[in-house]
Amino acid sequence: MRLAIDSGKLLYALGVLFAAAALLYFVRDVVFDLSITVKAALLLLGFIALFVAGVALERDVLDVVAFALSGVTYVVFVGYVVVRYSPGETGTFLLLALSAGLFVGLGYALRAGIPTPSRRTAAVVLGSLLVVSGVFVGADALSGGVTYDVQTDESVTVSIPETEQTPDRYPYIEAEIGAVTASNPSPFLRALTLPSLSGCLVGPTDHPQDSVYVDTDIEWDEDTIGASTTKSYAVSAELPIDPNRTESKTYTIEQGIDCSAERSEPTIAIQVDGRNRVD
What we know:
Helix content is 41%, strand content 23%. By secondary structure, it is an alpha+beta fold. Helix 2 runs antiparallel to helix 3. It is elongated. The model has no long low-confidence stretch (mean pLDDT 87).
């Protein structure tokens, strides 16, 4: 039996699939430096615009394509809000329930026969949505993104721990060496990505030019920062110490030098990536 495939509908279906992939890529926070709030708003406005286009279109199948794109956009919007805003179990349930009611209502309205808007009316609505989107994007760009300020102490002193307090990774001693401050001046929720820190020892040390593990005290699932919010996170380093040493040891701390630098005293060289740094 020979299958009859409608080439036009097949291409429409592929278009919807690629649109869904583009939307998923859009919400990954790797393109378009937009806040989480504005991305969610653009997805919601896109859903409205595509639904209006579906109602206004009279050509065969194109209205179905517009409705499909509208539905996909809304699904991505809901998923993005749940993942990035973390509304909790109750909030997620309410959002899904309201979404179900919305689509049942829209489906009923379409079946009952929504009056088809004129091309002029549809153009006005779509133009208005475009203007609103532009306002959101402009406000987002003008409000500024998240900035990160890395401040390190001038020095740190480590001591040999008592036997009963010996850490698991001894002879490496963990010590706090500074802090990273993240500031979000905008009125929108934004993604939080702390700068990557690395370090090494230079100068006369027991372990010359050894790498130093540097970490920031942040929860593993904390990846957003609220509107007009400033947060500070402690920075700690794991420093090598000779088990045969009995006295404490002091390290100077410097930013902006690499492991090839020469110093007359034991020094921790800290390197920071350039992501929106405050110098």
